[in-house]
Design brief:
The chain is of the alpha+beta class and 541 residues long. The protein folds into three domains: 144 residues, Sandwich (Immunoglobulin-like); 121 residues, C2 domain (Immunoglobulin-like, Sandwich); 187 residues, 3-Layer(aba) Sandwich (Rossmann fold). Helices cover 19% and strands 32% of the residues. The protein contains eleven helices and 30 strands. Strands 18, 19, 22, 23, 25, 26 and 29 form a seven-stranded mixed beta sheet that branches. Strand 14 and strand 15 form a beta hairpin.
């Protein structure tokens, strides 16, 4: 039996989300003389640091078809916070060799990120094949679906009456330990209740547990529950045990044998995931706010954090590109409001803390991340760096956009890139507390060598931020100093990947916390484009 001291739910590893990719092609090149092509699709995945492509897998070969629907799927681990570059190559097979270079005919390829597929309407994307000069190569169709055995969450409460008295000078301090049975007859711990002190008639607090953890999808699998009397030195006294199953628990109130442990309540709810909302059409709206205060240094000098080196990006551009290139896959129009703060603007030299980088106050949207970068570089040439460093105006501006959206159709992410000490801490705290009730998250990336103690205070991981006696409803701020992610060898791609991985890691959970707090269910995903009858069975492996 597993030791009850071994179980620590806070340290348990979270399995990656599994995504199943379905592949089809339409209007492929016909390169066979006496029949149609015999296509196969090969998936390659690009390494983050090395940039090398490695083969991940391939579909079956479908004979004599220019419009194949492949049965074999690709199953990938999915991480929202990483840019997962994929390449799909299509070949006409005229050899049984496993060496792809011996397959005579290359029919085209596409490049795509896993996020692009998932972020497309219905998690389905159609891209034009390229790579054969002077030829129309047709299209590749990719559909993504999240794999999950069971995503239900069970909530239950138990009590007990007249437990055995184990303590010499007082009553027992009972708690329960739940185990699920394994195929080999052993048991795996899956939950431990709190200890109820000094009672023989405990009522434990309600608790939730994934049904998958309780029975791994098998509703009749044995669930064993041990009853213990807690001791400070860890030598807990065994009071007794009983067995049950998910199916028995789900029938509602019941009593378990002589130990008189009673199930007070039991309910099951579906546990929606981040991908359920994305597939249902929730869009991530990405806004950038860049610090143009004088403490960054003169942009024309190499010592400046805004220095425009013709050979490599500065820290601001790297942070912007790293985060933006991932989030843009989940925004259908790819139009991003981009703002600056802390600069004097032409023609009158008035200081602004929410000016558009594209110089268009009526429409601050930039086209894609490249458009944001272009607006950033243009602003460096036309504004005067000044101060102070005020965050509240840009937070409030995004909050005004987020406030009317109450149906879960949009979620707003504000990226603030800054070099220094914040000047309007009181106002910023108030803005964050106000924004915590909205569909909104804030990412703050600190660049340069400054101390960022105030930024750590805004990040509510340890202590939830408060203002004027009000505590933020949710933790919506993630702060990271860029210097912690710079690759020592100077590999900018690796630096950007590390940064994006950390700053975006909390976004899915923050989105879910908002949706659950408002009881917003994901919209149904659009129906799959391909029916079973369309599947081709004329295949060879």
């Amino acid at each position: 039996m597993a030791s009850i001291g071994d179980f620590d739910p806070l340290q348990a590893s979270v399995p990656a989300t599994k995504i199943e990719i379905t592949v089809s092609c339409r209007n492929l090149l016909d390169v066979d003389t006496f029949s149609k092509s015999d296509p196969v699709v090969v998936l390659f995945i690009q390494g983050i640091g090395s940039k090398e492509w490695r083969e991940y897998g391939r579909t079956e070969v479908i004979e004599n078809s220019l419009n194949p629907d492949f049965v074999r799927k690709f199953v990938l681990d999915y991480f929202f916070e990483e840019k997962q570059n994929l390449r799909f190559d299509v070949y006409n097979v005229d050899s049984r060799s496993t060496n792809i270079s011996k397959h005579k005919d290359f029919l085209g390829q596409i490049f795509v990120t896993l996020g692009e597929i998932i972020g497309s309407t219905g998690s389905r994307i159609e891209k034009t094949l390229t790579g054969v000069p002077g030829k129309k190569c047709g299209t590749l169709i990719l559909s993504a679906e999240e794999l999950s055995n069971c995503r239900d969450i069970a909530t239950m409460q138990l009590c007990a009456n007249k437990l055995d008295k184990k303590d010499f000078f007082g009553k027992s301090d009972p708690f329960l330990v739940f185990y699920r049975s394994n195929e080999d007859g052993t048991f795996t711990i899956c939950h431990k209740t709190e200890v109820v002190k000094n009672t023989l008639n405990p009522v434990w607090q309600p608790f939730t547990i994934p049904v998958r953890a309780l029975c791994n999808g098998d509703y009749d699998r044995t669930v064993k529950v041990d009853v213990y009397d807690w001791d400070r030195d860890g030598s807990h006294d065994f009071i007794g045990e009983f067995t049950t199953s998910y199916r028995e628990l789900s029938r509602g109130q019941s009593q378990f044998n002589v130990y008189e442990v009673t199930l007070l309540s039991f309910k099951v709810e579906s546990d929606f995931t981040f991908l359920d909302y994305i597939k249902g059409g929730t869009q991530l709206n990405f806004t950038v706010a860049i610090d143009f205060t004088a403490s960054n240094g003169n942009p024309s000098q190499p010592t400046s954090l805004h220095y425009m080196n013709p050979y490599q990006m500065n820290a601001y551009a790297m942070a912007l590109k790293a985060v933006g290139e991932i989030i843009q896959d989940y925004d259908s129009d790819k139009l991003f409001p981009a703002l600056g703060f802390g600069a004097k603007l032409p023609p009158d030299g008035k200081v602004s803390h929410e000016f558009p980088l594209n110089a268009d106050p009526e429409n601050p949207n930039c086209n894609g991340i490249d458009g944001v970068l272009e607006g950033y570089y243009q602003s460096l040439r036309r504004v005067q760096l000044y101060g102070p460093t005020n965050f509240a105006p840009v937070i409030n501006q995004v909050a005004r956009c987020a406030a009317p959206v109450t149906d879960g159709s949009q979620y707003f992410v504000l990226l603030i890139i800054t070099d220094g000490v914040i000047s309007d801490m009181v106002q910023t705290k108030e803005a964050i507390v106000n924004a915590s009730i909205l569909p909104m998250s804030i990412i703050i990336v600190g660049v340069g060598p400054a101390e960022f103690d105030a930024m750590e205070e805004l990040d509510g991981d340890e202590v939830r931020i408060s203002s004027r006696g009000r505590i933020a409803e949710r933790d919506i701020v993630q702060f990271v100093p860029f210097r912690d992610y710079v690759d020592r060898s100077g590999n900018q791609v690796l630096s950007m990947a590390r940064l994006a991985k950390d700053v975006l890691a909390e976004i899915p959970d923050q989105l879910l916390s908002y949706m659950k707090s408002r009881d917003i269910k994901p919209r149904p995903a659009p129906p799959s484009y391909m029916s079973a009858s369309q599947q081709s069975f004329h295949t060879r492996i």
